[in-house]
Design a protein that fits this description.
- The chain is an alpha+beta fold.
- The chain has 5 helices and 6 strands; from the N terminus they run αββαβββααβα.
- The strands form 2 sheets. The protein has a 4-stranded antiparallel beta sheet with strand order 1-2-6-3. A two-stranded antiparallel sheet has the order 4-5.
- Helix 1 runs parallel beside helix 5.
- The longest helix is centred in the last third of the chain and has 11 residues.
Length: 152
């Protein structure tokens, strides 16, 4: 997001997707506050605001204080959820989903690109899937996540 690495592990993308440019500042701040963001999208008429990533230390506990208007799901080592919620649609069909435990798949993205120490840290982190259940509501997810993570 900051343009300091040549690709993102697993995705091999050299830069943030263009659609996420409008939420770049919020994503950078979330990373600074302890949420390593892996996937995200802004809200649009055909999209729900969404972010997934790994939370370290007390960051995960802080996320539990987010507004009840949001759907924030935390997955440790024993949780498993197959409930997927649609977050994007096109031509009347849903094509992107959130709310499920994608921890294992996300960890696999990092296996060949990070040091063993960082891999161990990621394996200990909590996997987070957070989205706004209201289509095209642009600010609530980001303001609530930032509020929660900024708490002392």
């Amino acid at each position: 997001m900051a343009g300091e690495i040549t690709h993102f592990p697993g995705w091999v993308a050299p830069e943030l997707d263009e659609e996420s440019d409008e939420i770049r500042a919020q994503l950078l701040r979330l990373c600074e506050l302890g949420l390593l963001t892996l996937a995200s999208q802004p809200a649009r008429p055909d999209q729900r605001a969404f972010v997934a990533g790994f939370a370290f230390g007390a960051t995960a506990a802080k996320l539990k204080t987010c507004s009840s208007e949001l759907d924030v799901r935390l997955f440790g080592h024993s949780e498993c959820s197959t409930i997927q919620e649609p977050i994007s649609r096109a031509d009347g069909r849903f094509h992107a989903f959130a709310g499920h435990d994608a921890r294992r798949e996300e960890l696999e993205c990092f296996e060949d690109d990070v040091s063993p120490a960082l891999m161990r840290a990621l394996e200990c982190a909590v996997y987070v899937s957070a989205f706004d259940p209201v289509w095209d509501r642009r600010e609530l997810l980001w303001s609530e996540l930032l509020r929660a993570l900024s708490q002392a």
